[in-house]
Backbone:
């Protein structure tokens, strides 16, 4: 039981950390989308 | 409209992606690094699909945008499972695979729920923006997970050179992406430069993975610093 709770805690911690980092990175942004899986030309995102 | 430089980077990426799968197959490591190879193989197929859509409908068409961003979301999900599969390999001696799977499902569900809640409050085009949001959020989850994994590798004194090389490549890739994302948000005018930089960065991951599968033997070990001979 404690291992499962530890897993849940770790998952929530990673999620909170990732969303915090995203907020930090995009703090001054206009919410533009920039993704890149691969070398293809990136299309302009929707406004 | 993409120029000749874009096409050169694109085909270079295709060659590198094919090299990863071929080197992995040739070394008999396809099954051991299944999700990693699945990601690269999917990336290769989606690249070909994107090329077809681009040639047929054009760069500024809605079809290319939709195809690009939806396929990106799919690739990011597979990349997430690639990171989890590297966790399984690093922790394989601790017999915690069950908990890693549970954690991965919880994390994916949590990220999906978070993305849905964000989109639900701010958009009328639910599915499209959900794909964006999920893809971006999973990228940052992958970034954090990779750094945590690197910490675990250092703590456990992991010495398998190939595994270390694969994880470090992934860490560099995620970091480069986050830096480019941050730059483009700090200064939206840099988007014009990013359209060249981002695809070039997309080549780095298959390049380093292809190098790892080609040059680093599966049983190669790094010499731990603590075991280094110190002259008296």
Residues:
């Amino acid at each position: 039981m404690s291992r499962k709770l530890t897993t849940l805690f770790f998952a929530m911690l990673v999620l909170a950390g990732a969303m915090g980092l995203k907020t930090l990175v995009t703090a001054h942004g206009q919410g533009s989308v920039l993704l890149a899986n691969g070398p293809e030309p990136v299309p302009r995102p929707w406004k | 409209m993409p120029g000749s430089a874009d096409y050169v980077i694109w085909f270079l990426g295709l060659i590198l992606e094919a090299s990863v799968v071929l080197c992995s197959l040739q070394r008999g490591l396809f099954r051991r690094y299944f999700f990693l190879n699945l990601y690269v193989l999917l990336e290769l197929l989606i690249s070909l699909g994107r090329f077809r859509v681009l040639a047929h409908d054009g760069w500024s068409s809605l079809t290319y945008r939709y195809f690009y961003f939806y396929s990106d979301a799919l690739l990011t999900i597979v990349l997430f499972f690639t990171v989890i599969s590297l966790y399984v390999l690093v922790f394989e001696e601790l017999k915690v695979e069950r908990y890693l799977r549970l954690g991965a499902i919880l994390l994916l569900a949590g990220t999906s729920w978070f993305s849905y809640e964000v989109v639900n409050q701010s958009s009328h085009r639910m599915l499209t923006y959900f794909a964006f949001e999920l893809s971006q959020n999973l990228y940052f989850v992958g970034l954090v997970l990779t750094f945590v994994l690197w910490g675990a590798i250092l703590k456990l004194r992991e010495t398998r050179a190939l595994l270390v090389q694969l994880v470090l490549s992934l860490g560099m890739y995620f970091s480069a992406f986050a830096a480019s994302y941050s730059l483009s948000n700090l200064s939206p005018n840099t988007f014009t430069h990013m359209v060249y930089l981002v695809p070039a960065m997309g080549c780095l991951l298959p390049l380093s993975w292809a190098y790892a599968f080609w040059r680093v033997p599966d049983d190669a070990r790094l010499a731990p610093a603590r075991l280094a001979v110190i002259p008296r």
